[in-house]
User: What shape does this take?
Amino acid sequence: MEPEGLDRRQDSFDAFFESHYDSVYRYCLRRLGAADAEDAAAEVFAVAWRRIDKMPAPQVERAWLLGVAYRVIGNHFRGRMRWARLVGRLEFATSRADPGDSAVDGDFRLLHLALQGLRPADRELLRLASWDGLTRREIAEVMGINVNAVDQRLFRARARMKDRFERLREDELRVGTKEASA
Amino acid sequence: MIEPLERIDPAAGVVIDKASLRARVEERVHGTSPTPSRVGRRRLVAALASTAVVAAGLLVLQPSPPVDALPLLTPGFGGLGDLPGIDTVVTLEMGGVKTMAVDADTIWVMEARQRRLHRVDAELGEIETTYRIDAYVEGVVVGGDYLWLLSYDSGGEVLRFEPSSGRVDKRIPLGGEPRHGAAWFGDNLWVSNDQGQLMQISSSGEIVGTVTGELKGEGFGYLWANDPATGIISSLSADGTRGEFEIPTVTRGETADGWGVRSVAEGGPSLFLMDGYYPFGTNLSTFDPATGEFRSFVSLTFGLLDMVSYDGALWVTSHTDHVLMRVDPTTGQVRRYPMPGKPGGLVVADGSLWVSLYHPGALVRVDPAAGMLEMGPIVADDWNRYPHRLVCTGPEGTTGPTVILEPYDWIDYGSWSVVQARLTEEGYLVCVNGYVEGEASPQVRAADLEDALTAYGIPMPYVLVASGDGVHPLRLFAEDRSDLAGVVLVDPMPVGFGSFLDATLGEGGHPVWADISPDVSNSLDGLGNLPLTVIGQDPQAVFLSERALEGLGEEKAQAINAYWQEGLAVYSHLSIDATSVIAEGTGMHMVIWDRPDLVVRSVLEVIARG
Assistant: This one.
């Protein structure tokens, strides 16, 4: 009895892994950097293995998994000891992503700065929507809020992002003008 | 026009090594997978839980995070989660002291005021299910396939909660409010009431025995209960036999309003007794069952609440100092770890130590092996004069500057514990000014600080750091002084804020703070060119939050925010060398907890500027 049960469990898990490893890994990569993304993603799937018989409906599987990832990263990785190191690494990765020194590339850098300067919840909302490509309903599942709240918060987060970005660009232009006149 | 965020996606175009990831998953799943019996048990629990939902139509709130993970401790803030060795597992409105009970790797957590009972999976660190309990419950015990909830309702009763159905299926009158302690021992629930009776209740819910006594805990195969008339603590066997061991030395037995034993716990070779002025603990004493010796062991601090044995040591919480203490049961050596809230109860579950916090409320898992932040050596501590207190930590013989932390009276001095520990780590002597109960006017506090610094010979110069209404005594203290090196004001309360709130919200709708009058404020000098940093809380997360806007209405919320912001501006004009910072994302008067890193950085930066 048990081996058959285990086989079924393994089969379910295999299909589950195939469907979602990409989303989960990328989610972790975006928040932790390459060195720890795999470790975190593996932890998320280990949780999924233990909970396979409590798995939600297929249409919310991804959101459920990313919700697990949200907590794994938030509670475990950050709390344990690696947070400062990871943040440093992420910033390094971010700065490496700056392609060059053209005006467009400068905007990329300002976007990074604007994003990093947002409140954590705002930042996470925007990342879930833009990078992870989640629907409003999925974002609600991951963050544990209702869909209306997602709408409101996304609206505000985008406004804050835009405001920050424009202020940063104004500051930069001001500094550039001063330097040019000097 | 903002370029789309997708353009800066760090994961875009990254090729995933699927095989490597799969191997890591396998390693975790099969290398450390649950044993079959454990998996089986989990399935059973899951099945029972789902049956409960269907069969009973329960008030089952679905698993976290919806309500519980949101509030003020959201990941990404600098507070709770950043402390090494402390994982915030569940945020609570308010954690309790005796409101946790462990069943294998499940922790049951009761939130008394919210009337919510959480089933927490200790392995995964998340709430599995939340039940609404229609009673005020301040004690939880696991035993005989049930959960026993000690309630103050109806003059005191025990509720028998059946986990498989999620229902309270029996209420047993206690003949008085539950008090002192409760335990599952032998095959019965033992619970004390405020009439000095220790009731023995069978798993069927029948009272099968009553003896005189107040239950203090378990250890060495016995229950331990005192006689309220004599204060003598004696052992109790499962069959009710009393007195094989007696600890007659506690002669001040009047636990209701005097000195007495709060609880006992087994630790190493001894039974430890926590005693103090009711209802808190202060000291630890030991009783050795092998020799019958009773002796005073170690004097800790005021406000002890709970203790438990874990990893070869005794762990003790102090809610006034916001510390978790590790006491070596043999040598008495004490190590102090700051907690990011008021620590209350302690339990051991799934091989880990768990602490409930209140204000801010949370259930945290503590990993002593993960390099937890420690309080520095205590240089001065006049806790014996509590509630008037100065506590200083730091290297012996330091020459200053000394950092003086003035608390928000409403929150209390222990709230500085994390900041104090971190600044001590930086090599500074750090003193927290205590409070003077009942006469905590800013003038008295300022004078008291002056006296205490002189009495203990605390070296100058001073860096003054105040939170909330602590800004008022520090301004008074700073008047006409030339021995200051800098000032940091954290979430400072504007002058006259209480009166303003009275006018805006109606009198009595808020706590009373230690304020100064505008006249007094106007008569005070500025800080000249003294380095000053003003840290404001995040208005978007506080006065302009959805909750505030909804609760106060747009107009009032905006008015309160405007008053507060104006106050920040006034403070930042006190010095010509001033910097202002907004601690983004911080909750209502939570900067100390949410962003201790920012406070520490500001203090160091002010010292550097000086």
Summary: Confidence is low (pLDDT under 50) at residues 75-101 of chain A.
